[in-house]
Specification:
single chain; 1 helix; Ig_V-set; Ig-like_dom; Ig-like_dom_sf; Ig-like domain-containing protein
Length: 122
């Protein structure tokens, strides 16, 4: 997907959130000074202050969260995809208890690149 700087970009997620299963958005960037990004719906309110131009929008039709980038900049370029994370607690036959984290990933990936504005001056 190519967008212009300043445009809004909406990305859809095909992963469902349910009890104990949370949607997570990822961005892998090839920019040298831009780190990877992980946004978990379980703890997103803490990330909102760090990323005020990124919004997670509840998609009630699909029980998911879509990602809205408001006024995109070059630092928003990268490969985006969503997934789910779930922590399960299990007990074996010896009554040992442990937890494991299960990650599942979307079937959709979107590469975002930003073009430049060109003006024709006469």
């Amino acid at each position: 997907m190519t967008a212009r700087p300043g445009e809004n970009i909406l990305l859809y997620c095909d992963c469902k959130q349910s009890v104990g299963v949370f949607v997570v958005w990822y961005r892998n960037s090839s920019h040298e000074n831009t780190p990877s990004l992980v946004l978990n719906t379980q703890s997103f309110s803490a990330s909102e202050k760090r990323f005020p131009h990124i919004k997670l929008l509840k998609n009630f039709t699909f029980d998911s969260y879509d990602l809205l980038i408001v006024h995109a900049t070059n630092s928003d370029e990268g490969l985006y995809y969503c997934g789910t994370v779930e922590t399960k607690v299990e007990k074996d036959i010896n009554k040992n208890i442990w937890s494991k984290t299960i990650y599942q990933y979307s079937n959709i990936t979107t590469m975002i690149t930003l073009g430049k504005y060109y003006f024709l001056i006469k």
